[in-house]
Amino acid sequence: MQSKISLVNNEIWKTITRNVGWVAIVYFLGLLIALPLEMLMTTDSIYEEHRYFFQADNLFQYNSEIQSILSIALPVLLALFLFRFLQVKQYSDFMHSLPIKRDRIYHMFAISGIVILIIPVLLNALIIFALYTPLHLYDFLSISDIFEWLGITIMVNLLLYMAAVFTGMVTGLSTVQGALTYIMLLLPIGLIVLLGFNLPFYLYGFPDQYFMESKIEAFSPLVALSLLRDRPLGPAEIVIYILLIFMLYSLSLWVYKHRKLEAVSQALIFPFLKPIFKYGVTFCFMLLGGTYFGRMEEGSIWLVTGYIFGAIIGFALSEMVLQKSWRIIIHIRGLFIYACSMAVLVILFQFDFTQYEKNIPNTSEIEGVHFSNSFYYYRNGDQPYYLQDLENIDLIRRLHKEIVANKGDNNHNSENAFFVYKLKNGKSIVRNYEIDQKKYAHFYKLIYETSEYKRVTNEIFNVKEDQIEKVSVHPYGPINKRAVIADSSEIKEFIAILKDEINDATYEDMRDNRDAYAIIELLQQDDETVTEPWRVNYKRLEQWLDEKGLLENARVNASDISIAYIARKDDLEIDHRGYSHEEVFAQMKKLGKVLKITDKTQLEISLENTQGYIGGSYIVAFYYQNERSIDIKSFSSERVPEFVKQYFE
Description:
By secondary structure, this protein is α+β, with helices and mostly antiparallel strands. The protein has helices at 4-34, 36-42, 48-53, 64-82, 89-95, 102-132, 143-170, 174-198, 208-212, 221-226, 235-258, 273-296, 300-323, 332-350, 375-379, 390-405, 441-448, 451-457, 488-504, 507-510, 539-547, 551-554, 581-590, 600-609, 642-648, and strands spanning 366-372, 415-423, 428-435, 468-475, 483-485, 518-524, 529-534, 561-568, 595-597, 618-624, 629-635. It has 25 helices and eleven strands. Helix 1 runs parallel beside helix 6 (102-132) and helix 6 runs antiparallel to helix 7 (143-170).
């Protein structure tokens, strides 16, 4: 004869199966459609072109959107339905009146959820194994790829599930449980982003772009999950996620055993969590308000306004959740204490109590330093360049010190100075400043004109001449022509002259904002391409191309232009957010005061002195007759030709 406890256990298992068994069915069918069925429809040995178009690097690339939605939504929904008895009084009273200890109830419900999440993934993995040989999946995937998909999917599902179980233990409302789960999973990366946007207001030189793109996706399983098709999880992430699963399982059990039964229907069942929730929400909304107002409108007044506005909204929303009503009573005293705490924190930052701004390493500590105009120069490419010459390191340190010393004069400038010090102890110090580069031109000139700087910032110095198959020179403009150099001796001559031009270029040449004549492409034997601009001041290169009969096709010439119109920028109505070259050209033709050029000499002078964006004082529209295309450029104030000045004076 079965014992009463055994009968109760059987009934609980039946109840669980009836209530949440559908989740396993939905999950199984969803994965079946996303993976095995997709493979059957697109991977057919008869039609080779289908096999080509569906080549995948991993199983997460098969209908990645469907897989992500299933993994993000179903584990949380499962936890909500499984532990619904904690949020409904009658259900809670019934469950806890049964002759079973709490820890046994918890294990039964929690483990049943784990099984429900594992079985659909395991069954689909078995189906994929069965299809592996018949569909020739080994052309795309290895057996280890299937095991990797199986393990990572189960791990992520269990992590999201246990996070939802844990939040269910600290709240008495299902809606709050769902919301808290996603907030908890997104909170680390959300705080990093908000702090990254706000810290530059207080820490002069804080590199927000570098900070927010330093693999922060690993701090949120949800974000990491959405990137699995392109970014596999690292060993450290996997270990941390597995440890979190076990920690959340144990912590949830402990909380459940200490949870009061009468806490049903309360937003947060433990009193000490309420102020944490309230001021945490207030802090996040304050940062959000500061981010919006501080970025949209410059100035400390707007920044403070954003903080105040965001803090009030966050405080009110948290009170609505805790009081379960929109008709709430704002506790002014708590808000006042919070405001005073934030004010003290802001004051401490103003005095640089962390010594962040003054932290410039000594020359003896530095192994190398990256110095550029943007974080993206550091990020692009396989390896960022570093300057290691002691003279350059000393110059960059002196420039850095002067920028920090002139902190108040550097605000609201558009040019960036990005520093990365690679230290001998393996650490890095990264800073980014917005400055007026003209104020520090003497430093930039000394750094930019060194042979080391030119060598590390121009990829052509890393190219072996005997590995280059051909050189193509593509004119900069809407024209279909190019010059090609295929003879090995001529390639060596060309590269030698180009290197000399780069080495002889002054800082002023490198700062020249005029459009390059062309883009030079060096095609190597391994099909890798190196590109360099042909700057206007590379006269020896121009002479060499002319001697070889290549100049006509190497750049845009006056013969390519049938007519050009020049007008004052102030006389035109141009939407800087987006404009059509044809519309600007038509508008210029209708102007009363417009200079029309057909003289070849004047066209050559115009081509040599224009820049590609419309920031100059005069707008130039070139009409390419053979191409039937229009190119809109401009003259900067220092590059306006004399014949243009004479016409408009």
